[in-house]
Fold this protein.
Amino acid sequence: MADKDIFIPVGSAYIYAMPFTGDIPSDVAIETEDNRLGYIEKGATVQYKPTNKTFKDDFGSLSRTVITEEVVTLKASLVAWSSKNLDTFCASGRVTETAGHRTVKIGGLKYASNKLWLFRLMHPDDKYGDVRITIVGTATGGFTLTYKQDTAGNLDLEATAQPSDKDGTLIIYDEEVLGDTVKASGLAVSSAAGSTSGTTKLSVTPTIGSGNSYRYMAGAQNPAVGAVLSAWTAWGGTSDITAATGDILTVAEVNSTGAAVKAGICTVTAKA
């Protein structure tokens, strides 16, 4: 588990948007140039606002407050943007392109797609770790196209979140914890007497991942996820291992580069 860090967030964020298909893709899949919605001026905000209702008895002896509604709103002003993304700002927006022209039609309730969008704010922080905030929802604030002398024609985004999963999640806040390591776990390893004296037969669950392999090391090891276990002994998963009853063995599942994915520990039972 990561240590608790208290720090002052400083700086703006990058903003991305893509159609939501039911699952949250990887960061690499979200944060692409194709999904970049524009460039933010004067920061962005994500507001969580609950509605509470308090119940009291007539004599004021007892009270109970419950949340009856939750609203999450993302706001950002884009100083640089593309007309190709105007359908993100308007449910009835239709973008078509022909040779030398891009046409955006806005309006017409019959064209309202009510499509859900995944919005991602990525706040870079080299000192404390990047922060990623993800919501799923639709743009609900409308927009104003501004063309004035000596004024940038910012396009303002206001998006209201909808649940992104069956739990009703409205905000996913993911913080990179620099210097933190996650210990490999997830393997259940058991030992039984091997086929010859001084050997043990190990069984490992769950089934190994595609393209992965096993390595083992004597003693109770605690490798971090991603640690390269080049010094560990390769094991095919079926052959007996030389060990004595009472020894401790750690088995790790590694990927194609030898980096730890999962690990488990057992106490050896060997054939006498």
